[in-house]
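Ticket #4471: structure output looks truncated?

Reporter: J.K.
Steps to reproduce: submitted the chain below (123 residues) through the standard prediction queue, then opened the result file.
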Amino acid sequence: QVQLAESGGGLVQTGASLTLSCTISGRSSGNYPVGWFRQVSGREREFVATINRSGGLVEYAVSVKGRFTISRDRTKKVVFLQMNNLKPDDTAVYYCAASYDFASREADDYMYWGQGTQVTVSS
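Returned output as attached by the reporter:
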């Protein structure tokens, strides 16, 4: 079994920065492609960013490109989402997810999910 745990959420003002962390534990080496998604109550889960196993391939949603950066540490077991210039529209619960196969924009391609961390950006 694979477990993912998000941390780093909080309440910030418009223009502030936050860094979310996703720690992977459990079976295997923990080196999985990882995606970040976010969800606002009553809406569908939205793709934010994804990174492949090596960290050499990353993709972003248009809404966050240029403001958010996804990366992973040397062990490959922690994936970060650096969020700069936050806006009220970024308010959501942020989830990280792990895939067996490849980095993807589709939530259905991910098998393991964390519990989520709340990010609230005040105007």
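Triage note (M.O.): checked the attachment and the full token line is present. The CA atoms of residues 42 and 92 lie 11 Å apart.
Status: closed, working as intended.
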